[in-house]
Amino acid sequence: MKKVKKIVLIGASGFVGFALLNEALNRDFEVTAVVRHPEKIKIENEKLKVVKADMSSLKQVYEVCKGADAVISAFNPGWNNPNIYEETIKVYLTIIDGVKKAGVDRFLMVGGAGSLFIAPGLRLMDSGEVPENILPGVKALGEFYLNFLKKEKEVDWVFFSPAADMKPGVRTGRYRLGKDDMIVDIVGNSHISVEDYAAAMIDELEYPQHHRERFTIGY
Description:
Layout: E1 6-10, H1 15-26, E2 30-35, E3 48-52, H2 58-65, E4 70-73, H3 84-101, E5 106-110, E6 117-119, E7 122-123, H4 135-147, E8 156-161, E9 165-167, E10 176-178, E11 191-193, H5 194-206, E12 213-218
Parallel strand pairs: 1-2, 1-4, 2-3, 4-5, 5-8, 8-12, 9-11
Antiparallel strand pairs: 6-7, 10-12
Helix pairs in contact: 1-5, 2-3, 3-4
């Protein structure tokens, strides 16, 4: 298998994207960071290229992705965006098309916890436990995975769902991975630091274990 050296990271200035950016650069990947506001990226690194691009444009997705070994997307239209549901699905469909057009085989997506099962037959996003103000964004990621990504047969994709509660913390390197069921600790809490999430995502990039499937993480 070809070693991954050059990656495109979409949404690199966001909460998860920035953690992924730091992890990838610390492991000597060449990173093209795709953002809406380049001034937000203050890192200086010879292996980092920062590009401003609109991910709703198929042409721009293609342009930034061509020549990459893999694409990681942490795209989010913004939790306060009133059109977050529609934009998330529409833009992710464009990103997938652009990745394919650019001939990039490996696509890793920062997923949501909403489509994880918290009990037999019950997904978090259908449980009534997700706060109303973030439900449209949570459902958008979940339904993109369930209705579109799971049917994608051309690209070698993964959808990496975090724990229900992901916060800034420390990179412990100690966590558990699973597939479709939310990982909870001994008292029933589902949590992970964004640093450990990023470490596990870049592990998957470097040493692929999952193909055309979702996986998840928790302590």
